């Protein structure tokens, strides 16, 4: 599924995103993450194996929510919810996190710290299946 330009614009504003994965017992696990887009996938970097990466390997269904900086015609703050399937790939986390750190923390930031830069890390890649929330990416049903 193609990621709409309006959603790409939201991601470009560097909103903290909430990644929801499913624990082995079916319950939700929510983590605040930095997010970017590569092609038509959302990408999130991790330096180590975490609950969210283990959950994705067990069940690829995820939701990702981001608060926009814009207001709807009704005066509500717009937000995007991405429903999709994720996969975890090894490697590439350092350059992704460096790019995102400059967006989220400032243009002169070096991240991750030097002691972690030789680790391959992981990238969670989310292929969207549908979009929800309040915004042009989810027009109201009539």
Number of helices: 3
Largest sheet: 7 strands, antiparallel
Sheet with the most strands: spatial strand order:
2-1-5-6-7-4-3
Q: Helix content range of the residues, please? A: 10-25%
| Low-confidence parts | none
Mean pLDDT: 95
Distance between the termini: 23 Å
- Pairing-aware structural class of the strands and helices? alpha+beta
How many structural domains are formed by the residues?
1
Shape: globular
Radius of gyration: 15 Å
CATH topology: Pnp Oxidase, Chain A
Question: Explain this structure to me?
Answer:
By secondary structure, the protein is α+β, with helices and mostly antiparallel strands. It has a single domain, classed as Electron Transport, Fmn-binding Protein, Chain A (Pnp Oxidase, Chain A, Roll), CATH 2.30.110. The chain is built from three helices and seven strands, in the order αββββαββαβ. A seven-stranded antiparallel beta sheet has the order 2-1-5-6-7-4-3. A hairpin with a 2-residue loop joins β3 and β4. The two termini are 23 Å apart. The mean pLDDT is 95.
Short description:
With 142 residues, the protein is α+β, with helices and mostly antiparallel strands. It has helices spanning 5-12, 51-58, 93-104, and strands spanning 17-22, 28-33, 36-38, 41-46, 61-71, 77-90, 122-134.
Task: Please tag this protein with its features.
3 helices, 142 residues, 7 strands
Task: Give the secondary structure arrangement, pairings included.
Elements (H helix, E strand, L loop, with lengths): L4 H8 L4 E6 L5 E6 L2 E3 L2 E6 L4 H8 L2 E11 L5 E14 L2 H12 L17 E13 L8
Antiparallel strand pairs: 1-2, 1-5, 3-4, 4-7, 5-6, 6-7
């Amino acid at each position: 599924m193609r990621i709409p330009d309006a959603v790409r614009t939201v991601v470009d504003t560097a909103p903290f995103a909430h990644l929801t994965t499913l624990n082995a017992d079916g319950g939700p696990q929510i983590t605040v993450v930095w997010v970017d887009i590569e092609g038509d996938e959302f990408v999130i970097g991790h330096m180590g194996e975490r609950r969210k990466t283990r959950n994705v390997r067990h069940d690829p269904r995820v939701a990702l929510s981001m608060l926009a900086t814009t207001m709807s015609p009704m005066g509500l703050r717009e937000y995007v919810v991405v429903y999709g399937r994720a996969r975890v790939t090894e490697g590439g986390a350092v350059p992704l996190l460096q790019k995102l750190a400059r967006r989220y923390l400032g243009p002169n930031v070096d991240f991750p710290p030097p002691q972690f830069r030789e680790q391959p890390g992981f990238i969670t890649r989310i292929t969207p299946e549908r979009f929800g929330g309040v915004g042009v990416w989810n027009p109201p049903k009539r």
